[in-house]
Design goal:
By secondary structure, the chain is of the alpha/beta class. It is built from 12 helices and 12 strands. The strands form 3 sheets. Strands 7-6-5-10-11-12 form a 6-stranded parallel β-sheet, with helices on both faces.
Amino acid sequence: MFTATLIGDGLRAGDLSAATDRLAAAGCAPGVATWLEAGEAVDIAFDRDPAAARDVLEGALAGTDVVVQPTATRRKALIVADMDSTMITVECIDELADYAGIKDEVAAVTEAAMRGELDFEAALDARVALLAGLDEDVIARCLAERVTIMPGARALVRTMRANGAEAVLVSGGFTRFAEPVAAEIGFDRAIANVLLIADGRLTGTVAKPIVGSATKEETLLAAIAGRGIAPESSLAVGDGANDLAMIRRAGLGVAYHAKPIVAAAAGARIDHGDLTTLLYAQGYRRGDWVTA
């Protein structure tokens, strides 16, 4: 059995009927539909062809996200998540660059790297080099003034952990941001790059090896093995090209408001809702969410 979860603002009975009709026409044999939250999220059970179900449902209802997956493994025991533009609303390196007066230059490289147009490691080295000489105190200012937790992040991570899941934040950004962000949201641990500092100023380098695509994939696979769970019980979420490897290896790989290359490859796309969409996708009702 499979479940198609529709998540949107103002879902109506007519939307549910239209979705069920589409599934029937695609030969998916839809069955019972169950509201997780009236007007916000609904599950539709069906018997066959999840690829066809996704094809006919994604984009069919304006402002609605769709997650299609096997019913038996929808509740996940592991989440591995990206940080910048996924668990927080900004790219930290771009914001640091703003304090140095070079945000536009750095942000253009960040965007190209996240779209998969540049090698991530080389692009990171090049951007960090531009920050050489920046006062170390700017990091704390940037964290306080610019970094905002993504809506739904706390509820997603805290609810999963309260139900026995492990949560790992793995970022191509920097430990000076990832560690406090992980603690605030509720992750078990954080992995990120170390900015090198001497005499109170950034040296323009990061410690090697760089935390990039390979590290993210390795972190996911090691956590799966360490917990002794099936890969199907894992969830990975990110927005950039350096998240692709872990997204492809996870039981549910999610592109969150992502670059086109990521959205095209992921098992699920969240284009409209916040991160609580991934709680509905796992069958959690709003009354089950943990926010404190």
